[in-house]
Design brief:
This protein is mainly alpha-helical.
Length: 200
């Protein structure tokens, strides 16, 4: 599965500024994929934007493969990715859930499922799914990065989010996830400083 790119441009009262970054759910080896399209804004009132078109031919190809081998978890996950890219999150959820029924120990698919839950306003389920991912792999940095974002912008729990981003930086400081977590932490620090000018 390749990196699912999600653009979060989030304005929060606790930040006082707009933070934007790209975060991936899980990257690796999904054949034939180009540059992913941005997913919707993770804000209370997202800006209207057209969803990328669904690759109907790819959906049909994958459904044919699933009919031939319904126990192939990877094919279900690929179908979820196609739906995810088209922002068809309920369909993505169904495909990811089916994949995990077959192979429940895939933290990548589990994290993709959690992100999809978040995009359908199922914040608690997203966090529970991330916890499942972390049971499989406690060092899964994309899960930790996503968990921090959901805590910050779904639960408005900035201290808990900060803890998750710090873990990402500690585990993989030079990775894309580490860089994005560092950007988030710098944004928090900058907004805190802006809100407390006497401390500068």
């Amino acid at each position: 599965m390749r990196s699912e790119s999600i653009v979060f441009a989030v304005a929060g009262m606790c930040f006082g500024v707009i933070l934007g970054w790209v975060l991936g759910s899980q990257a690796s080896n999904r054949a034939g994929d180009g540059v992913p399209q941005p997913a919707p804004q993770a804000t209370a009132a997202p800006q209207a934007q057209a969803a990328p078109p669904l690759d109907e031919a790819r959906v049909q190809q994958l459904r044919t493969a699933i009919d031939a081998d319904p126990k192939n978890a990877g094919t279900h996950a690929q179908l979820g990715n196609v739906y995810f890219d088209a922002q068809r999150f309920p369909d993505a959820i169904a495909a990811y859930e089916q994949s995990l029924k077959i192979n429940p120990n895939d933290p990548d698919v589990s994290t993709d499922l959690g992100v999809s839950y978040f995009y359908t306003n199922r914040t608690d389920e997203a966090l529970a799914q991330f916890e499942q991912s972390l049971k499989i792999d406690p060092r899964h940095t994309k899960t930790l990065l996503n968990k921090g974002i959901v805590l910050a912008f779904g639960k408005e729990d900035l201290p808990a989010a900060t803890n998750e981003w710090k873990k990402v930086v500690e585990l993989a400081p030079d990775s894309p996830e580490g860089q994005r977590a560092r950007q988030a932490l710098e944004g928090v620090a900058a907004s805190h400083a802006a809100g407390n000018p006497t401390n500068q």
